[in-house]
Amino acid sequence: MKYSLVIFAVFIGISIATASCKKSEEVIIERVKESEMLAQDHGSLAGAMKKASRTMRRLARTIENSDWVEMAKWAEELKENIGFNCVELYMIENNDVSNEFMELSSNFNSALNKLISCSKSQDTDKANIGFGNLVRSCDACHESFNKDAETKLDFTDS
User: Fold this and answer.
1) Fold of domain 43-158
2) In contact, 51 and 38? CB cutoff 8 Å
3) Considering the chain, what is the average pLDDT of its residues?
């Protein structure tokens, strides 16, 4: 009886280990696919904006759920994506950058910094207002400098 119980326990252990290994392989495959997709997008303004759009949708979800840690993470990611990469790539692709563009970029960064502050203070009302201001700063820039895009941006999951 003891012998069969030990064999059964070993069998269960091996089954669990095998199943968990398969799950980690699936996660690794998903991460590889995502990094390949980002690698294809890297280096172009359109690619940087796609990445920023994904980040904005993630940020919108975290604000909706009042997930303060994730909100701070995605806001910092957005700061890197738009605040630095997109602005820099736009400036490279367009030799003549207007003062209006620089002001809109500054407005975006200011709204983003206020949102990061809201995530630290964990204030839901201010976070919602801050996110609204952030979206309006995106809309203003797209309206002025991206005539081909829709003027009103939608960062909800579709």
Assistant:
1) Four Helix Bundle (Hemerythrin (Met), subunit A) (1.20.120)
2) yes
3) 77
